[in-house]
């Protein structure tokens, strides 16, 4: 009777351990499948947000262009002042 009970309990432990291992394997496969999906979505997110990171580069270029435009504007203002009739020599600098 003792041996029978021991074998029965041992067999029951083996069955429980086997069921738990099968459950762990199924969960691991599900995690692997979901991880693959997550990596695919992460790639899509990276591709979709790439233009946002390019905005910093575009902003730097626009700031450089704005600086150049301000420089050209000041140069044009100087040239316009030099060419204006009020600044011409011999006119007395007054109004007509």
Structure commentary:
This protein is an all-alpha fold and 96 residues long. The chain has a domain of 66 residues. Helix content is 85%, strand content 0%. It contains one helix and no strands. The radius of gyration is 41 Å and the shape is rod-shaped.
Mean pLDDT reading: 88
**Number of separate strands:** 0
Low-confidence spans: 92-96
**String of helices and strands:** H
Please state roughly what percent of the residues sit in beta strands, choosing from under 5%, 5-15%, 15-25%, 25-35%, 35-45% or over 45%: under 5%
Query: Distance between the terminal alpha carbons, to the nearest Å?
Result: 132 Å
Overall 3D form: rod-shaped
Biggest sheet descriptor: none
Q: Which class of secondary structure composition applies to the elements?
A: mainly alpha
Helix content: over 70%
**Rg (CA only):** 41 Å
The number of distinct helices, counting runs of at least 4 residues, comes to 1
